[in-house]
Amino acid sequence: MSKVITTKKRTSKPAILDEYTNQEISIQAEDFSLADEVTLLEKDNLTDGAVVTFTGRVRNNNNGNNVTSLTLEHYPGMTEKSLAKIINQAKKQWQIGRVKVIHRIGELHIGDQIVFVGVTSKHRQDAFSANEFIMDYLKVKAPFWKKEQIVDAGKTSENWLDAKSSDTDKADLWS
Amino acid sequence: MIKIVFFAALREQLDCAELSLSADKAKTVNDIKLLLSDKSAQWQQIFSNASLLAAVNHDMVAGDHLVKSGDEVAFFPPVTGG
What we know:
heterodimer; A: alpha+beta; five-stranded antiparallel beta sheet; 4 helices; 10 strands; about 35% strand; B: alpha+beta; five-stranded mixed beta sheet; 3 helices; 5 strands; about 30% helix; ThiS/MoaD-like (chain B); nucleotide binding (chain B); MOCS2A (chain B)
């Protein structure tokens, strides 16, 4: 048997953490303002006539369960890298201008915003398609995990969400 | 040494966030899984789950991906963000 050293706590942050973090990607605990993000996508941007935004929020139900809150975990460094790859794929596939992806982490409550994807383009079709593509790929490729806190007959419990095959099927439609 | 990290439900099941392995023990990601499975019956059962994903240096990889000293290898369940 091999020698395995086990530590229960993470000892250090990956050095690569900031390498892929740029203006297009933000992984944050704080909330964001849709209006501010649209302003940034549009500011001094006179070539793009289309701005498409998507906002995902925490809903109060999942698989029939009464959800009270969610906890979002991610893999610092890899999450940013995978989102950067997805954005680059979108830029190759469609003629788009600016892109912004925000994903929140930590504890979130019913109605809270979780995710934002904003894309600008000269014309609407590329902006619509690229936005949907980024969201579909984020769902199945970016390392985020949701744990939900649920209340059933007054009892609180929590469980990690299972990945949905419908999300994989949807993402596969792009390939 | 190879740094191994675990996330989400996997981390909780193992009660372990990260560990180190000597690089001369493993050539591939699958080798690492086998070494980790040797730790206990519980770890063996957890690492036999075919849906577990693996990444090396922040890129998703298949089980036959080669590993070397200095690599960061991650194991985690299918992702559920968005």
